[in-house]
Amino acid sequence: MGKTIEEIKIGDKAYIEKTISETDVYLFAGITGDLNPAHINQVQSEKTMFKGRIAHGVLVSGLISAVLGMQLPGTGTIYLEQSLKFIAPVRIGDTIKAEVEVIEILKERNRVKLKTTCINQDGTIVISGQALVMPPKHV
User: Mean of the pLDDT values across residues 98-123?
Assistant: First the structure.
């Protein structure tokens, strides 16, 4: 099981890194039905402000869920809320670091607030936000 509220401290951090592949984008498009040409059509996407295909923002933000559910707090965590600000595009081949940092502990309600950030290989923040989770309780 993941960390309980008693084991978590302000400032605790965890992250994962993943290179976004073309397969990731096509699988996400198929699963969700989001077939926006900005994601799956090179010719059409070149006519957009991004001048080429970009990954779905929600696909990239899903990496935050992986950190919360697998590392901090970890398995058994219940994801309650997430705010997201999409700041910069993520292109196929970008390596994204999804990081979470504990910013508030609401012990009486068994809740933890975390700063959530996704950064590309150039150090550019591509997504920022906050999450509210319920860490697991050990029995």
Answer: 98
**The one-letter amino acid at 2:** G
Residues linked to residue 127 through DSSP beta bridges, in sequence order? 86, 118
What span, in angstroms and rounded, lies between the C-alpha atoms of 60 and 48? 20
| 8 Å CB contact between 96 and 124 | no
Residue matched to tokens 């302000």: 10
DSSP string, 91-117: -TT-EEEEEEEEEEEEGGGTEEEEEEE
Q: Where are the alpha helices (DSSP H) in 22-125?
A: 22-32, 37-40, 42-45, 57-70
The model carries a pTM of 0.93
CB contact at 8 A, 64 and 116: yes
